[in-house]
Amino acid sequence: MTDAYIALADGRVLEARTRAPGRTRGELVFTTAYTGYEESLTDPSYAEQVLTFSYPLIGNYGVRSERFESDRVQPRAAIAREFTDDVAEWLAEEGIPAIDHLDTRELVTTVREEGAMACGIAAGEDVTPEDAKAEMEACKPMSDHVDIGAGVSVSEPTVHEADPNGAVDARIALLDCGAKGSIVESLNERGADVHVLPYDSTPADVEAVDPDVLFVSNGPGDPENFEAAKAVVNAFAGDLPLAGICLGQQIIASALGGSTEKMTFGHRGVNQPVKDLRTDRVVMTTQNHGYTVSDPGPLEVTQVNVNDDTAEGLESEEYGVITRQYHPEANPGPHDSLDFFDDVLAMSDSTAEVAAD
Ligand SMILES: NC(=O)CC[C@H](N)C(=O)O
């Protein structure tokens, strides 16, 4: 039954079935992840996007909040060939439109060829193709969401205490530009206290924490719009070890004089091959990004994507920087690169002291 429409920026309108009603708009992207739909749907990096799953059946092992990466569903809408009732009910409760029974292969091929694009969705009783088109026409380009961090960051500093059995003793200031919960957990379980700070914190706010490492999180939107975070990175570069994941890598590179650019359709999935240029070792990684570092500035590109050679890891001994474009914390996806967190904590003085004891 057709009771839903998706209008694409290329002028087409596709018919679908409503699984959760509503009207909305966003940047149409796809993930090839075949597992981890709860984690993906709660990843704050998907804010202002409409997420299409290329894997055809989404929801076949239920919905459990233990697997959530934040406290709500983050994309503006979700699309699959088929959603189970569990997922459809969850999305409906959250007020997130969901549609299925459309040819998602066609949608994914379109995005691969034409790039991530504006779309509009109208789902539910009495909607028309014109409703979907009106939503699409009101959709802003991602770079116009200049204050996107405000919707996904903590509003007050929040402390997540270390697991007392963790191997290290360190304090991390995590600039929360839309952080996934697993990043905090990965640091806590190794023994680091994590002070989560608002995305627009000042250098003085970071100073107040007196951290061993400044960590810039993942997050949605165009990295060039995170002016406050770039200023914080600049204030501490060379004085404090710096680490970043995804948006964090982009912000750190840009702050230190490099640059970023938008990719055609980005990398979203759980089997992106990344090669470490120093060891020639390739690991499978989880990814979710639409921008990339095009110029690393003073940082060295230490890891690249095997498919398209884009920068996956940046480091600098001089500045004390280690960043990743992919998601070492996994969730969803492979655990092959969890040692990133050990490498980050090895940069902190207190780790060195503990190790020397
Ligand atoms: N997962 C992320 O941190 C994404 C970073 C950035 N918003 C991008 O799309 O490239």
From TrEMBL:
Annotated catalytic residues: C246, H327, E329
Gene3D superfamilies, sorted: 3.40.50.880, Carbamoyl-phosphate synthase small subunit, N-terminal domain
Pathway where this protein functions: Pyrimidine metabolism; UMP biosynthesis via de novo pathway; (S)-dihydroorotate from bicarbonate: step 1/3; Amino-acid biosynthesis; L-arginine biosynthesis; carbamoyl phosphate from bicarbonate: step 1/1
Annotated HAMAP family: CPSase_S_chain (MF_01209)
UniProt: L-glutamine binding residues: S45, G219, G221, L247, Q250, N288, G290, Y291
Organism expressing this protein natively: Halopenitus salinus
Protein function: Small subunit of the glutamine-dependent carbamoyl phosphate synthetase (CPSase). CPSase catalyzes the formation of carbamoyl phosphate from the ammonia moiety of glutamine, carbonate, and phosphate donated by ATP, constituting the first step of 2 biosynthetic pathways, one leading to arginine and/or urea and the other to pyrimidine nucleotides. The small subunit (glutamine amidotransferase) binds and cleaves glutamine to supply the large subunit with the substrate ammonia.
Protein name as catalogued: Carbamoyl phosphate synthase small chain
SMART domains noted in UniProt: CPSase_sm_chain
Family that this chain belongs to: Belongs to the CarA family.
Source organism, top-level taxon: Archaea
Keyword flag Hydrolase: no
Catalysed reactions listed for this entry: hydrogencarbonate + L-glutamine + 2 ATP + H2O = carbamoyl phosphate + L-glutamate + 2 ADP + phosphate + 2 H(+); L-glutamine + H2O = L-glutamate + NH4(+)
Any GO MF annotation of the entry: carbamoyl-phosphate synthase (glutamine-hydrolyzing) activity
CDD domains xref list: GATase1_CPSase (cd01744)
PANTHER family: CARBAMOYL-PHOSPHATE SYNTHASE SMALL CHAIN, MULTIFUNCTIONAL TRYPTOPHAN BIOSYNTHESIS PROTEIN-RELATED
Subunit structure: Composed of two chains; the small (or glutamine) chain promotes the hydrolysis of glutamine to ammonia, which is used by the large (or ammonia) chain to synthesize carbamoyl phosphate. Tetramer of heterodimers (alpha,beta)4.
UniProt domain Carbamoyl-phosphate synthase small subunit N-terminal: residue ranges: 2-122
GO biological process: 'de novo' UMP biosynthetic process; L-arginine biosynthetic process
EC number(s) from the headed UniProt entry: 6.3.5.5
